[in-house]
Structure to design on (456 residues):
């Protein structure tokens, strides 16, 4: 039926505040965790850089600087080179470093703890044109941030060797950034926390979505019952005061009806009809206002549906209205006041007949449902039950606008010229007293589905 208008209810301020507070708390916890992670990582990188710079300075202090600075390509096989290389290797192993070497700016490698690296070889990191190595020219040590080499993360430190203020060589030490492995555990924990927070927030959203409408409905019901209590007292008094004169008027009109012909007979008939209409209206007021005392018994709802259909079928056929039914739940044993539920069925079916205006069809469906209809307005204590017998009355008539749907169960609201606006209010009260639910789906100009569910 296209886009369907459904009952709508706005979340209360309490729900909004609670949900907002929970989501804000989750956001603060997650944001705080990531801020802590970033600061911890930055601090550990800085401490590792300081350690590597100190180690590089120690290397520069322990080597024979004059001998190393004199190395030329081809000296790799000489004894002095072997001595200095072994010294460099011991320093590397003692400090748990991965790589230690010296290079001369623009001339390449001077000494490397790793065998097989020739003098003059250009190391990829020893590019003195790099902006982050420019402080070396001024005699300032440099610590590089964590970088990847062949899928492994390392940190490097560069310490200049100066001779009378001139940069002669650079000591480089590399170390595996193993401390990041410890931080990785923290990072994974933060990711898990973020995932759990998302699940929790989603669950809270679903919970609030499912329960907000119920809470708003209960709040409205409390206010409505207060109004009905006052209205019931007023209506009972008015009915008593009005019915006594009506009885006298009707008796007088019946005397006029005894005239065989003439204006008196016609007037008497008209007066009796109007008195009966007023009496029926008073009865509706009393039915609406008085508390719904139900005489509930285990009954077959499917049987009541068929009996109600048989009562209205001939009238519908006379008006050219198609009437069909579909029973998917039989027997549908529910606890109900038979007379009241029959009143509900008649009201919904006759309203559907009026909506098609003699040029359409009405379909009645009874089926089993495990939970209330998605479009339902919770009017009774449905949360205690897990199975329902649901009746839908569908027509292809004029449909109902959204503004009408939001008010149609309010007392005295009607779109009919001679309507009282109490029929659906009475329906609402009856379904409420049976711990059931109501639902309406409609599109103006396309038709309406209206129905109710009772615990089965």
């Amino acid at each position: 039926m296209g886009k369907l208008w459904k009952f709508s209810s706005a979340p209360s301020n309490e729900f909004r505040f609670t949900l907002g507070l929970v989501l804000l708390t989750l956001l603060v916890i997650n944001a705080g965790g990531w801020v802590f992670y970033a600061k911890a990582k930055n601090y550990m990188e800085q401490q590792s850089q300081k350690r590597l710079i100190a180690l590089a300075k120690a290397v520069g202090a322990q080597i024979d600087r004059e001998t190393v600075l004199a190395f030329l390509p081809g000296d790799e096989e000489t004894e002095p080179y072997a001595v200095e290389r072994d010294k460099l290797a011991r320093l590397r192993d003692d400090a748990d470093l991965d790589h230690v070497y010296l290079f001369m700016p623009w001339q390449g490698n001077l000494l490397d703890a790793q065998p097989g690296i020739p003098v003059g070889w250009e190391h990829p990191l020893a590019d003195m044109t790099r902006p982050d190595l420019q402080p070396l020219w001024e005699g300032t040590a440099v610590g590089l941030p964590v970088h990847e080499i062949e899928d492994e993360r390392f940190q490097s430190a560069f310490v200049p060797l100066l001779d009378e203020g001139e940069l002669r060589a650079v000591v480089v030490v590399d170390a595996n950034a193993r401390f990041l492995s410890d931080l990785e555990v923290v990072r994974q924990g933060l990711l898990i926390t973020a995932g759990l927070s998302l699940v929790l927030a989603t669950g809270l959203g679903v919970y609030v979505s499912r329960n907000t409408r119920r809470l708003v409905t209960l709040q409205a019901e409390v206010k409505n019952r207060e109004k009905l209590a006052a209205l019931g007292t007023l209506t009972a008094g008015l009915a008593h005061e009005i019915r006594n004169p009506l009885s006298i008027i009707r008796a007088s009109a019946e005397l006029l009806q005894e005239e065989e012909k003439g204006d008196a007979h016609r007037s008497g008939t008209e007066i009796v009809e109007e008195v009966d209409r007023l009496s029926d209206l008073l009865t509706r007021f009393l039915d609406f206002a008085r508390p719904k005392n139900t005489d509930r018994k285990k009954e077959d709802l499917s049987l009541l549906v068929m009996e109600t259909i048989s009562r209205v079928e001939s009238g519908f056929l006379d008006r050219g209205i198609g009437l069909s039914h579909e029973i998917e739940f039989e027997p549908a044993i529910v606890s109900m006041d038979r007379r009241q539920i029959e009143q509900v069925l008649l009201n919904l079916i006759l309203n559907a007949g009026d909506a098609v205006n003699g040029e359409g069809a009405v379909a009645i469906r009874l089926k089993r449902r495990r939970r209330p209809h998605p479009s339902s307005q919770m009017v009774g204590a449905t949360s205690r039950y897990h199975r329902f017998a649901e009746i839908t009355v569908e027509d292809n008539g004029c449909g109902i606008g959204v503004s009408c749907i939001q008010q149609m169960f309010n007392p005295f609201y009607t779109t009919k010229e001679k309507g009282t606006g109490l029929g659906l209010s009475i329906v609402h009260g009856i379904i409420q007293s049976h711990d059931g639910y109501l639902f309406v789906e409609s599109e103006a100009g396309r038709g309406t589905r209206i129905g109710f569910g009772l615990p089965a």
Observations:
- Residues 177 and 425 are 74 Å apart (CA to CA).
- The first strand starts at residue 99 and ends at 104.
- DSSP finds nine helices and 14 strands in the chain.
